[in-house]
Amino acid sequence: MALRAPARVVFPDALDQRVLKAAQYLHQQGLATPILVANPFELRQFALSHGVAMDGLQVIDPHGNLAMREEFAHRWLARAGEKTPPDALEKLTDPLMFAAAMVSAGKADVCIAGNLSSTANVLRAGLR
């Protein structure tokens, strides 16, 4: 089943050698479509310094993608109403919050985090 419809897996803790290697493996084997959430220049430099190829990996920069952050903030407002933080657009620059919003919006199927982010922050992002 995985080879017919690979899941879109978003990785907010992308600046980790283990994540890059796992994402590259998933992509090469056709098991999933990895999406790395990070500044593309920082990530490319990190990958080069660790000898990990980035060929075929999708990278989304939450800071540089205002349209997606606006869409996610609008969805957050529709779902949470008054409980939506006034700085929702700013909070969505955090890779973890952005990745959780991608899953909530159906732009990714699953989020894998916790290798750099604390358990509390992962849970907090998932609950919002």
TrEMBL record:
Molecular functions per Gene Ontology: acyltransferase activity
SUPFAM superfamilies: Isocitrate/Isopropylmalate dehydrogenase-like (SSF53659)
One Pfam family matching this protein: PTA_PTB
Alphabetized Gene3D superfamilies for the sequence: 3.40.50.10950
Domain called Phosphate acetyl/butaryl transferase: residue spans: 3-127
Keywords (A to Z) from UniProt: Acyltransferase, Transferase
Protein name, as recorded: Phosphate acetyl/butaryl transferase domain-containing protein
